[in-house]
Each structure stands twice: as structure tokens, then as C-alpha cells.
Design a protein that fits this description.
UvrC_RNase_H_dom; GIY-YIG endonuclease; alpha+beta; disordered N terminus; five-stranded mixed beta sheet; cytoplasm; 20 helices; Nucleotidyltransferase, domain 5; 645 residues
């Protein structure tokens, strides 16, 4: 279904909104909310499409959460797909969300609170790593989020000892495997000594561990070990035996054993205050707790049952059918439990039951999950209280009208003026908001290699950041999410003075709150003050500023190193005659680094598209001038002999 981009949002065109709502049928199905650029904002499902969509736009929509309220303001078009049943609508919604990954479909308040395990199935040789950020990659698979980070790391370490897996993202050597291959820790991925198909089979066994299917894996490996022994392949049998011992070690780490080991079940519960709902999901397989997942949701997003329903939908949408248990125990009744149960049954191809337990054993399990959720909520509350205390202290320190919601930090990075860059990092409510981070390349012509000017560089960055506000005096400041409540400059009075001068020229100094934080003594300076503020090194506001400063420094240094590496790679190859931009890119894409290009022979270089034998020899001679000189000298000696003949 396609549509042209709308000229304006539906809220600004009541007649078009009314007409569009009348077109939506009162049948089950899936609806799409789109913005003015035809980009999908949100995908939802309902047993009555018209009633559900109408609820977003009815009068008194103040009941919406800030997330949904922001989304509704951007809706310019509504589309829908009708289904026969509610379960079909849920299945279709799951597939469409996987495909499009709309921004406003994220229920979790902070997806970086708990880590995931990622397997990059889209690669020929998949990588396995722990991350706190789910990337928009449909082919990668994320397991989690796991509450116990230490257990997750230990499990991954044991799995890496049990199974031969790739140990490096990039190969250490161009033409031979590293030590990991020799000791059996890697199957030689860098030299493709194992086929992608065979390597995928190894990774699938690792995935079974994180799917809670360890016992199933043990049964498979045991059968394979006996087959290898019967075939007199004792080396393979011994390798599988060692893997089974490792899996026994892994099972020993899962100390929580529960009665009724024949049933696989998930148990979910939450604990909430006015702001946060901490959700815990325990995965029980064969009577053993194999996973403890955690989610943090906005309490205002719905009733406890609605929150649990959405968490379960989001969780099971991302798992393989073999990971779905036969039974799901919930703390509160779900508003659409029958629809979810039917969806899970279809996915698993076996009956899945969802129930609020009443019997003692199952009820005690849910109570245990709830107690863990209460502990997570208490930890979240302590963190929130410390964060609020830090923002309040900073507001008093910098004489702000209230706690700073948006704080921006700036830093400069270079090596004696070369590759000068700057960073802008943003903290929202005291936490890093990486979606708002920015980097700047310093354009000042006086800042060159051997001549640095941090004052001028910082002034340039501030001018580029806020010049649109100077050019448009009517541009809204208060209430604008892009306008900072506080700006922190990494440096002392010199950097602050340069920034103040720049802001005065733009007539913005009176509207912008600025401080600087000097590195040596952690002193805080404000515009016009000769002395630093009277502060304590460990007071909450100063600690928050230091976290902001350290993050700005980390981000600036990382960007500087990236630009410096690109320049060094580019400059070495730019000196080679006949090697243009496209061919340089081809070379680096094939050999990955200058070192590998230097080590390659002319024959190896000539295998790259666009690199002929003559150019390959020129590249080789550039990196081996002594060999080229010897070749030239031998040609001179051989020339007279050829003439006399």
C-alpha cells in the first residue's frame, strides 16, 4: 500500500482527519501512522481498527504518554491492512515491525540498561558479542536483555572455550592464521579454512545455549560422539567429549533449580512507582532457570496488565519459535491474553497457555519474579534519586532557574594542530543522549599542523552550533528541545572567554547559560567571574559535570583518531602515480590496511579490480624503493651486453 506525502499533519487539518477516520473499518487488522515524508512512525494492531485509531485523536488526548503524544503531532497519513482474526493481526504486526522498525514502537524506556548478546547471522562468518544497543539490522539476532551481566559474560567465555569461534573482527595476518587456530580456539576464519556453512553450524550450537536449549544440545552432541566412536573417528569423538564437559560446567553455573522439570515456562512480573515499571521475565527450562531478562517501561504507558502484554509481545516477536515455552505465567491478567496465546501457538506449532497462577507452586514462582522486580525498581529509584540530586545541585551551582534537562558539553582534540576536531555531547536528564551527539571538523585556516588555537577552535564550534538562533531572533528558545539549559566548555578561563566573546557578538549570551570546567583542579568558571566557583570535588553537581566532560573528551578523541587514520591511509596512497581515489578505495577494501598492501606482491596486487600489472608494479616499487633501485641498476648493466651482441 503506498501513498504520496501529505502536505501537513492530520491535527492541523481536522476535515481531512475526520474523513480519514470514517474510512477506517471496524474490523481487526494493522494500522500505520506515517509522517509528512511518508516515513512510518508507528505500527499497531487492534480488533477494531476504527475505534483504536480514533482514540489517538479524540478530545482530551492529554492521557497520552509524551512518547505517543509526540508521535500523534507528527501523523500526516494513516493506512491499514484488514485481517480475518485478531491473532492474524498480531502476527502481521510482528512481521511489519521487524521489517520497518518504527521509532515509536519502542516501549522500553531505556534499552541500554541491560545488555544483549548479538549474533550477526547476516555475515558469512558471524560474530558473537555483548552489546547494550540494538542496531537496525534485520539479519542480526539479539538474545536478552540480560539482567545478570556477569553471568552473561561468563556464559559467553565458556561457550568460546567449548566451541572453536572467530576471535578477531579483522585478521592479524594477511596470509596465515594466528595462534588461536594452532591451539584450536578458532577454525581459521581469517584464511577461510572453514566454509561459511560449517561455521554457521558451530554458531547455531552456541545460539542453542542462549536459547535455553542446553539439554537439547547435549543430547545432539552425545549422539554424535557415539557415532564418531563407532566410525573409529576417535579424534572427533574426543573433541565432542570435551565440549560436553564444558556444557556440564555451564549447567553447574545455573544454580537455581525448580520443581516440575518436565515443563518449559516463562514467568513475568513487574514492580512500579509513579515513573518506572521494572519488569522481570524468568525463563525456566527443564526445571532450571536459564535466563533472567529485564525491561524498564514508562508507568504512564498503561495499566500493569497492558505493560506486561506489550513486553511479552515485543519479546516473543524477536525470538525463534523453538524458544517459546509451553506455558507463560503472568502476574496480572493480560487485556488480550487469548490473542497472544493464539499467536504463540501458531508460532510454536504447539499449544501455548497463558495464565495468572492460582496454585501454590506456580504462584510462588511469580512471587519470586516479583520480588526480583522490586529489587530492580529500588535500584532504579536510587539511581534516579542520585541523578536528580546531581541536577539540582548543578542548578544551584550555576544559578539556573531549575534542574537542567539538556546539558551540552564541548571539547577540542588535535595533535599539535593537525586533524583538529571538536565534539558536542548531550546529556538529557543527566544521562547520555547519543542520538544528539555531533562532531565538527575545525575549518579555521590558522589552525594547521604545528599551530594550534583551542580558543579560536572553541569559538568556531559555538558559532556554528548557535548561529541559526542569531540569524533568526524569532526562533523559539524556551520549550525548544534543541536549546540547551546549560553549556559546559572543557577548559579554563581562556576557552570560556573566547566563547563568551562569540556569544556576545551573536547577542545570545544573556539567553544561554555557560560554564567551563578546567582539567587540572576541576575548577568551574562562569562568565565575568575572576575566580572559580567555591565547590567541593565530590559534590553531585561537579561529578555530573565531570562525567559530561569525560564523555565529550572521549567522543572528540575518538573522532580525531578516526580522521587522523583516514588521512594517514589516504596520504600514503595519494603519492603513488596513477592511483586515483576509486582504485585507492578498491585496494583498501581488499587488503584492509596499508601494512597488508606493503606486504603484497605485484601478482597479488594485480588481482584487485582496476589494478593492472604495470600499476601493481608501481605500487610495489613505491613501498620497496630498494628493490626497485636494484632492478633499475641490473637493467643498466644488462643493456651494454645486449648492444654488443
Amino acid at each position: 500500500m503506498s501513498t504520496s506525502a501529505a502536505e501537513k499533519t492530520l491535527l492541523k487539518d481536522p476535515e481531512r482527519l475526520t474523513a480519514r477516520l470514517k474510512e477506517i473499518p471496524q474490523e481487526p487488522g494493522v494500522y500505520f501512522m506515517k509522517d509528512e515524508t511518508d516515513h512510518i512512525l508507528y505500527i499497531g494492531k487492534s480488533k477494531s481498527l476504527r475505534n483504536r485509531v480514533r482514540s489517538y485523536f479524540r478530545d482530551g488526548a492529554h492521557h497520552h504518554t509524551p512518547r505517543i503524544g509526540t508521535m500523534v503531532q507528527k501523523v500526516a497519513e494513516i493506512e491499514f491492512i484488514v485481517t480475518d482474526t485478531e491473532a492474524e493481526a498480531l502476527a502481521l504486526e510482528a512481521n511489519l515491525i521487524k521489517q520497518h522498525q518504527p521509532h515509536f514502537n519502542v516501549l522500553l524506556k531505556d534499552d541500554k540498561k541491560y545488555p544483549y548478546l548479538c549474533i550477526t547471522w547476516g555475515e558469512d562468518y558471524p560474530r558473537i558479542f555483548i552489546t547494550r544497543k540494538r542496531r537496525k539490522d534485520a539479519k542480526s539476532r539479539y538474545y536478552g536483555p540480560y539482567v545478570d551481566t556477569g553471568l552473561l559474560r561468563r556464559t559467553l567465555q565458556i561457550a568460546q572455550r567449548i566451541f572453536p569461534l572467530r576471535q578477531r573482527r579483522q585478521p592479524l595476518f594477511k596470509d596465515r592464521p594466528c595462534l588461536n587456530y594452532s591451539i584450536g580456539q578458532c577454525p581459521g576464519v581469517c584464511q577461510e579454512l572453514i566454509t561459511p556453512e560449517e561455521y554457521h553450524k558451530i554458531v547455531q550450537r552456541v545460539a542453542m545455549v542462549f536459547q535455553g536449549r542446553s539439554q537439547e544440545l547435549i543430547d545432539v552432541l552425545t549422539a554424535q560422539m557415539h557415532q564418531a566412536a563407532e566410525a573409529m573417528n576417535f579424534e572427533k569423538a574426543a573433541m565432542i567429549r570435551d565440549q560436553l564437559k564444558g556444557l556440564d560446567t555451564l549447567s553447574a553455573n545455573q544454580k537455581v533449580a525448580l520443581p516440575d522439570g518436565s515443563i518449559s515456562r516463562d514467568a513475568i512480573a513487574l514492580s512500579a512507582d509513579d515513573e518506572h515499571s521494572c519488569v522481570q521475565l524468568f525463563q525456566i527450562r527443564a526445571g532450571r532457570l536459564v535466563g533472567r531478562l529485564g525491561f524498564v517501561a514508562d508507568t504512564q504507558s498503561g495499566t500493569p496488565g497492558e505493560i506486561l502484554q506489550r513486553v511479552l509481545e515485543e519479546h516473543y516477536r524477536m525470538v525463534d519459535p523453538v524458544e517459546i515455552p509451553s506455558e507463560v505465567l503472568v502476574q496480572h491478567a493480560l487485556p488480550e491474553a487469548d490473542m497472544l496465546a493464539e499467536f504463540l501457538t501458531v508460532q510454536k506449532t504447539r499449544k501455548v497457555a497463558i495464565e495468572v497462577p492460582q496454585r501454590q507452586m506456580k504462584a510462588e514462582l511469580v512471587e519470586m519474579v516479583e520480588r526480583n522486580a522490586q529489587h530492580e525498581l529500588a535500584r532504579t529509584q536510587r539511581f534516579t534519586d542520585r541523578n536528580n540530586q546531581a541536577m539540582q545541585d548543578l542548578a544551584e551551582l550555576a544559578d539556573l532557574p531549575g534542574p537542567p534537562k539538556r546539558i551540552e558539553g564541548y571539547d577540542i582534540s588535535h595533535v599539535q594542530g593537525s586533524d583538529a576536531v571538536a565534539s558536542q555531547v548531550v546529556f538529557m536528564d543527566g544521562l547520555p543522549a547519543k542520538q544528539h551527539y555531533r562532531t565538527y571538523k575545525i575549518k579555521n585556516p590558522t589552525v594547521t599542523s604545528g599551530h594550534s588555537d583551542d580558543f579560536a577552535s572553541m569559538a568556531e564550534v559555538i558559532r556554528r552550533r548557535f548561529r541559526r538562533y542569531a540569524e533568526d531572533p524569532d526562533l523559539k528558545r524556551l520549550g525548544n528541545p534543541d536549546w540547551p539549559d546549560l553549556v559546559m566548555i572543557d577548559g579554563g578561563k581562556g576557552q570560556l572567554s573566547a566563547v563568551v566573546t562569540e556569544l556576545e557578538e551573536m547577542n545570545l549570551l544573556s539567553e544561554l547559560n555557560v560554564v567551563s570546567l578546567a582539567k587540572r583542579l576541576e575548577e568551574v568558571f562562569t562568565p565575568g567571574a575572576k575566580q572559580s566557583l567555591d565547590t567541593e570535588p565530590d559534590q553531585p553537581g561537579i561529578l555530573l559535570l565531570r562525567r559530561l566532560r569525560d564523555e565529550a573528551h572521549r567522543f572528540a578523541v575518538g573522532f580525531h583518531r578516526k580522521k587522523r587514520t583516514e588521512r594517514m591511509r589516504r596520504s600514503r596512497l595519494e603519492d603513488i602515480p596513477g592511483l586515483g581515489h576509486h582504485r585507492r578505495k578498491q585496494l583498501l577494501g581488499e587488503f584492509r590496511s596499508i601494512d597488508y598492501i606493503r606486504e603484497a606482491s605485484p601478482k597479488q596486487l594485480a588481482t584487485v579490480d582496476g589494478i593492472g600489472p604495470m600499476l601493481a608494479q608501481q605500487i610495489y616499487d613505491y613501498f620497496h624503493p630498494s628493490a626497485a633501485a636494484e632492478s633499475t641498476e641490473s637493467e643498466k648493466v644488462a643493456a651494454p651486453a645486449k648492444t654488443s651482441a
